[in-house]
Please model this.
Amino acid sequence: MHDRLDELRRLIERHARPDTTTAIEDVLVSRVDRSDPPSASMSGTVLALIAQGEKRLALGERVYDYRAGQYLVASVDLPVTGHFVGATPQRPALGFGLVLRPAAVAEVLLQAGPAALPRDGAAAPSALAVSDAPAELLDTVVRLLRLLDQPRDRAVLAPLVLRELLWRLVSGEQGAVVRQLGLADSSLSHVARAVGWIRDHYRESFRVEDVARLAGMSVSAFHRNFLAVTAMSPIQFQKQIRLQEARLLLAAHPGDVTGVGYRVGYDSPSQFSREYRRQFGVPPSRDAALLAPG
Model:
């Protein structure tokens, strides 16, 4: 186990670039040399494995801590706040990531067949989950990253090792989270449809009944499953998206706090200021000054 983590650290250190991408599509590696304050972002649908260091993510009221030898799975693209803890140039945080594609997960599930996997319940699991990485999963990740140094073998072998890695995930401890990503009619896929709609129309007010209908669920089932997946109500989720977008806009337009509030869907400047301060700890005008370059 320790040998695998040591080799994984060396591979990540050697191949880490500022943009995190690698020569293998959907495979990411990162090196972080300092612990910046928590920042808001979208999680993406990913496997994130820590080789060195520790990371903390918050989704709504839920907090997820994971460290070297542990991995996080995100099966829906959600607004999260997070940062690496205690990273320094002398001991940077090192991580491996894999973008999870529903079609690729579905293909592995189809090849395995229903008899090879446990039966999932009807309720949607949380979209984020953390587990210890078993030796088999670490071994697969190491063999995948070794291919970065083997360009002649990469085109043929990388797709095979990626499929093996997906199999380790769908058959592992957090398999239920990943399996639902690949099932077109799972509760998670219905919630993901609603999440996508709210994300694309975050400026607009909406009735929960209409979004539930779009997701193909009754209102009660929609509320229950949306909360299970995202740790938020649909309205709270919309607010998170609005405030994250507002913060990005304020960095570019620090002198137009009122205009930014309107652009992300707030009719009331006072409500925008109140909710922004509750989310980020400072009012938007002060945060805009802190975000401004120079």
Notes: Residues 151-170 form the longest helix (20 residues). The beta strands are 27-32, 39-42, 46-52, 54-59, 62-67, 70-74, 79-85, 93-99, 128-132. The CA atoms of residues 131 and 173 lie 7 Å apart.
